[in-house]
Give the backbone structure.
Amino acid sequence: MTITGEAFIGGARERGGAGSFKAWDPTLRDYLEPSFHMVTPEQIDRACRLAGEAFDVFRATSNEERAHFLDTVAEQILAIGDELIERAMLESGLPRVRLEGERMRTVNQLRMFGTLLREGSWLDARLDTPLPERTPPRPDLRMRMIGLGPVAVFAASNFPLAFSVAGGDTASAFAAGCPVVLKAHSAHPGTSELVARAVTRAVQECELPAGVFALLTGTGKGIGQALVGHPAIQAVGFTGSRSGGTALMAVAAARKQPIPVYAEMSSINPVFLMPHALERRAAEIGKGFAASLTLGVGQFCTNPGLVLAVDGPGLSDFCAAATEALQATQAAVMLSQGIADSYHKGVAALAGNEAVSTLARLEHEEGKGAAALFRTSAEDFLARHELHEEVFGPASVLVVCRDAGQMRQVAEALEGQLTATLQIEREDYAEAKALLPVLERKVGRILANGYPTGVEVSTAMVHGGPFPSTADGRSTSVGTGAINRFLRPVCYQNLPDELLPEALRDGNPLAIWRRRDGALTRD
Amino acid sequence: MTITGEAFIGGARERGGAGSFKAWDPTLRDYLEPSFHMVTPEQIDRACRLAGEAFDVFRATSNEERAHFLDTVAEQILAIGDELIERAMLESGLPRVRLEGERMRTVNQLRMFGTLLREGSWLDARLDTPLPERTPPRPDLRMRMIGLGPVAVFAASNFPLAFSVAGGDTASAFAAGCPVVLKAHSAHPGTSELVARAVTRAVQECELPAGVFALLTGTGKGIGQALVGHPAIQAVGFTGSRSGGTALMAVAAARKQPIPVYAEMSSINPVFLMPHALERRAAEIGKGFAASLTLGVGQFCTNPGLVLAVDGPGLSDFCAAATEALQATQAAVMLSQGIADSYHKGVAALAGNEAVSTLARLEHEEGKGAAALFRTSAEDFLARHELHEEVFGPASVLVVCRDAGQMRQVAEALEGQLTATLQIEREDYAEAKALLPVLERKVGRILANGYPTGVEVSTAMVHGGPFPSTADGRSTSVGTGAINRFLRPVCYQNLPDELLPEALRDGNPLAIWRRRDGALTRD
């Protein structure tokens, strides 16, 4: 296959009409061929209008048809073969094994949404029995979920497959019956093009309207703002920086018709070292923490950028073990020059902060991420908001607290987070119980005796959390729950059976779980 | 009992410190005693902070405890007795029978949420079985919903009981475990005070933290803006005007931490007269429509402010029947002087619109709503946005279309609505099928052969719809689904059983429906 640098609009390749750019190889530090072409406002508008026109047909497909489409997208991605992995390696600097794993994750999550569709309870079908004899009579009421409409998806830089063209946002939007207009990330446009071709082939093979999917290529903020502002777009999925996410939230809120934005933005994922765990497992935790911090050069949304410990037995052992483990790592290529530059700047600011001491800091190398660990006191952390900000990469801050009460006070002062982790022993449970209500208010996922990196794609996963970890803490962007972001309820009152959607008809022809007068039933 | 004109903060009466106002009797056109006192910024802040402090304790109550609390609120409302009905009649001008019915609705919906809590599947509990042998191992993941935090609720003018102090927003927020800071509507402050006392007694009887509920009294926009802007507030429920709702949306979006707003604002609830129904039942539909239009002096969010018909047999009979029925009505007292003035202004603007002809118009009377029906063409309706705007009261516009295609075109041009109604016969089903996908995108509830006024409180009801009918079309403010507005998911990874919430523990101690690896089970 050949990468041509084109966008996909209306099921066909189309050259962007507004200038060109090239991908960057962060390992060799050079531009990659070919040139990619930026789409024009007219092309953005057309992609959105086609998505709007495709919506009614797409959402009218059966659960089985959409599941088959998702399976076909997965097959087409696998059919690209090794070219996909090689191009993604070039564009991201990520190792083969990671990208092969990420491809499997991408394929599995497409199939997971297929399974969800076939099971059918995502429709939240509800039927209230009419009571014609009551005064006033109760009508026949039935409800089911439908898709919101075309979704603008912004691919992430740090998952060129699993949070990109056919990643979790796209899969969950498709599952909900929503067409997707995808803004490719300019750091991996070739990878995006290959996957976009796979999706386009699946659209064709399944005989869906061509407007169900479009890939827009380009750099800068203009495309995203035009996309989110377009009247046909009804929701936004985004993974990226806090500034990028909040800018899109502002555009969405300022529209004539405001729309929901699901932006996953910024999290420092506090790890709480409870006293008995620290005393008993300080060295082990230090090593485990360092491994999680440096995994993938720290380029995960769930990277543990904050550690809290009560001063006491084990703390110095933890510091020693973590420092030793970090110093044994090597600076490694980051996803893009921009990310590497921001990381270096963030680390330098921490090192220069008068309230902070440096426990470990590898030497800076251009374009690479060098691990770093800093230390501060709870008082200083509480007083300095700059210490609460995410530094995207393998850097973390240890906050030393006087006691468990002060640890809770720090937790209470945190902004919203994707995760919080507890290192606990049985003797810590009482303190943990006091801390848990605070954490439940602050984060989407609470872990015990593990590390936050590694986000399982499953039914119970929550990859989300209160602002600013995401734009909308009512949601998850990973796992089956992600479909709920793109759904809304519609109620039908006294509609004749033949005008009702199949999910709500008498006799339950889809054989799905439904609620009758509130009670779950498959009858 | 005596109405004292005070607010309720921290479980105690407290005189507002910022000036006073009186309620207005729209029937006698005079002020009512006593004076009510407006709360100060300090009082607003204190109410919100107490709500924040009460949240963890309140949400930790069991399903049964919160259900009992809701039942107790219901009992306490009934215990007020006739004083409540009499004061509400004075303040709203609504008749006794309507208010007695509304009280029953209010009590029933509190109890309905109690039943929902006892059933337990609102928790959306999910458990994923750990796979320790897999590479990488799958952790133990469990998820449940928790409340968002304190909710600011703005009482509606048009339902002094069912959408007010202990109305649907408050009941669903309480059910979700969220404290409520309630802004009383200045049109019925005495009614609000009586119900606030009932809620406060229930809080005391159930030994809940006093911050679970507060009633703020006052007029103007300042209180609402301070309330929505307060950092402790995590969501907003509002029923009122489009300008009021969008102003609160702007405050919520501009916060340091943006929060969700559920504002129910503006809807003209189109009624589609399909050709065969019109031909066969023109007179009956004309009468039924006029009755729905004038019910409660047209002061319902679901009032049918728009009728669409294809020019043809029956149209003139419909117009004659509707006109005759409307002319047989009488102008009646509206809820407030402001509503009556706005209505009169809206009707006068329609009557003066050069694209509109007047079919029926009762004579204006000060403070009253006089029914009116206007007629325009589809072309004019499409060209003039002012004809799409809600006129709150018993006025409607008939839009005459050339054919079914043009009717669909008008439907496509509508803003988001709470409801759409189809008058259909079997021979209209084909046309209805073509129209339904458009309506599903535009509205929250689709009715056949009925009228949109009358909103059942049940499991399958959707009282919501795309913007601007509500701020957030993903939700309903009536029925059990209303609880979902105030919930968010939290996931627990590898937490020891004794640290897990009861809903997620091994052995299912609450005996609720849960999902294990995606499949619903009660085991």
